[in-house]
């Protein structure tokens, strides 16, 4: 069928092309429009280098965890454990440093490895035991929450956190750029390179596009899906470490809210530049939209509930734009 119809009216190829362009670039146009409006309404506070750096710094952890989630979503699965896992990782890295007196690099490596292990468990449950990824990762996430409270006895680990650990997140070691931004750029750059510029990335995209066809082409689909979960788990671990460093403590529920933010960024990103496809660059743009939205609401003194309304609304819009992009691509 060469044309598609909306509400009984058949669209011409030109109209279809116009809708396709809108679906691909609407999020970017929306981002620039948001920045423009906030800049006009608050010209002294919003459009400044300091504020833009602050927005990136505040959003960097959400971008890291969303980048890992993107890999899991690209291969056709969902990882609902990431927020709970990041909270657990923040507690464990703090405990290893404060209670067990481990060197900071050793504690960080252990926790990142733990993140990979949790991702491996998620991938095994989904691919080998054939449990739906929503159920599997939600169940694993709930278990991790229990472990977090057990490890900390429900009490934040605060006393004895060394200054060197705080500087992981709060320091500016490279040209005065906040460390979190540097780490975010490195992580997202590595993920983008993996997916877009390597043969492994081609396999990842093939599995996400059509797992059955990928299997017939000789791709080990289960291995690729497990890899997606492992990357997601490692990014959740890194987020938890940096968040604990930023807060100066390990807290049982510190990163739980990152789950919704990550999903909103990933789905909003799927409507960016491509026709309903999940990709790392799109996730970055989606996270920017959320971050600038939150920043603008804070500058104008909007009540806290408005942030939840904004984030929920942006997630609905994101899924809607993603669905529109897919329908246009498939028609």
UniProtKB/TrEMBL annotation:
Subcellular location as annotated: Cell membrane
GO cellular component, one term: plasma membrane
UniProt KW keywords: Cell inner membrane, Cell membrane, Membrane, Transmembrane, Transmembrane helix, Transport
Membrane topology: Multi-pass membrane protein
A GO molecular function held by the record: transmembrane transporter activity
Superkingdom per UniProt: Bacteria
TM stretches of this protein: 21-43, 55-75, 82-98, 104-126, 133-153, 173-195, 226-245, 257-273, 280-302, 308-329
Pfam families, per the entry: BPD_transp_2
Entry annotated with the keyword Chloroplast: no
Function: Part of the ABC transporter complex LsrABCD involved in autoinducer 2 (AI-2) import. Probably responsible for the translocation of the substrate across the membrane.
UniProt subunit comment: The complex is composed of two ATP-binding proteins (LsrA), two transmembrane proteins (LsrC and LsrD) and a solute-binding protein (LsrB).
Protein's recorded name: Autoinducer 2 import system permease protein LsrD
Gene source species: Devosia psychrophila
